[in-house]
Amino acid sequence: MKKIISLIAVFTLSMAAMAQNASLKVTCRDGKFLSFQMTNDFDVYGVGFKVKLPEGVTIATKVNDDDEEVPQIKKNTTRAKGADYKLYIDNIPGGGYSINLSNLDAPFIGSEGEILYIELAGTLSGVVEVYDINFCDNANPQNSYYVNGDKTYKIQVELGTAPASPVELKGEVDNGSLVFTFKNNSGKTIANCNFQLQLPEGVSVKPKGKKYAYEEGDATEGMTFSVAYNATSNKYTITVYDGEFDESLGNTIISLPLEGTLSGVATVSSIAFGDPDANNICRPEAFTIDLGTAINSISADETKSGVIYNLSGQRVSKAVNGIFIIDGKKVAVQ
């Protein structure tokens, strides 16, 4: 009888151990992002893995607020909630990275979803290998649970040309402003977007007091807008959130009035669209805007009566035989 009870106890413990299951899914998104999603049926307080990238591919970097160049790896603030979640990134001898995300005070939120993503740089081709994937619980932080119970389990992800983005972002110059529009083919609700804008020398977003001037898009009525400038990277960060995009009203997101002589090329990068739960829908490719296509140079103080520009954006004293910009309007003079 004691033997039977012992066997039952062992079987129960085995079933309990088997019930603790967690898995990691890795996908390549928009050609240059590695997305890590986790599914678990027990409270996971930490996850770690190693990443080996193909030759010529590295983790992209960015400059942080302390002017330090750091890897472009971001945790999902919905899934990995709270400042207590620490993200550790270490180089592996011989090439590759060791990445760990952990917090012994609280488990990951929910049972599945993206926990973090990595932006890649270089010639994006070849195979990414993710291995030594492990999870830990709070009861025994030293105890690791490996994917499928196998420490040697590996995930391989093929890099290559990105498919067309389900959400498109476009920008064009219109009457002295950069106007950004979008088209949503994802079939999902868009609740937020953000992107970075780098303008050529001599061109800037028009200030409005201590902030920047902008016009809200008709597709983003009632949403919250933010335009911030980082002098170190020379980039503006534009963020729209706290609502839902209304495509029935139009596709315009935001118009940014510019000042300076419109010439050169503007670069739009780090584009991201998210759903109401802050999950990423897509990350369209970076693109450029030729400011030379503008027909007027813009300065709020120089659009007064009598100010004349030619089609190259140069101020002239007199309009003689040709097309000119007078008071911000195109005028043919004979």
Short characterization:
Helix content is 5%, strand content 49%. It is mainly β and 334 residues long.
Q: State the low-pLDDT regions, or none.
A: 1-19, 295-304
The proportion of residues forming helix, as a percent range, comes to under 10%
Q: What radius of gyration results from the CA coordinates?
A: 26 Å
Tell me what the CATH architecture of the largest domain is.
Sandwich
Number of strands: 30
Structural class of the helix and strand makeup? mainly beta
The total count of helices amounts to 1
What proportion of the residues form beta strands (DSSP E)? over 45%
Total individual domains: 3
Describe this structure in words.
The chain is mainly beta and 334 residues long. It has 3 domains: 142 residues, Immunoglobulin-like (Sandwich); 125 residues, Sandwich (Immunoglobulin-like), CATH 2.60.40.680; 29 residues, no CATH class. Helices cover 5% and strands 49% of the residues. It contains 1 helix and 30 strands. The strands form 7 sheets. Strands 3, 8, 9, 11, 12 and 13 form a 6-stranded antiparallel beta sheet that branches. Strands 16, 21, 22, 24, 25 and 26 form a 6-stranded antiparallel beta sheet that branches. Strands 1, 2, 4, 7 and 10 form a 5-stranded antiparallel beta sheet that branches. The N terminus is likely disordered.
Give the SSE layout.
Blueprint: H1 2-19, E1 22-29, E2 33-40, E3 46-52, E4 57-59, E5 61-63, E6 69-71, E7 73-75, E8 86-91, E9 97-102, E10 112-122, E11 126-136, E12 144-146, E13 155-159, E14 167-174, E15 177-184, E16 192-198, E17 203-205, E18 207-208, E19 211-212, E20 215-216, E21 224-230, E22 235-241, E23 252-260, E24 265-274, E25 280-282, E26 287-290, E27 308-309, E28 315-316, E29 322-326, E30 329-333
Antiparallel strand pairs: 1-2, 2-10, 3-9, 3-11, 4-10, 5-6, 7-10, 8-9, 11-12, 11-13, 14-15, 15-23, 16-22, 16-24, 17-23, 18-19, 20-23, 21-22, 24-25, 24-26, 27-28, 27-29, 29-30
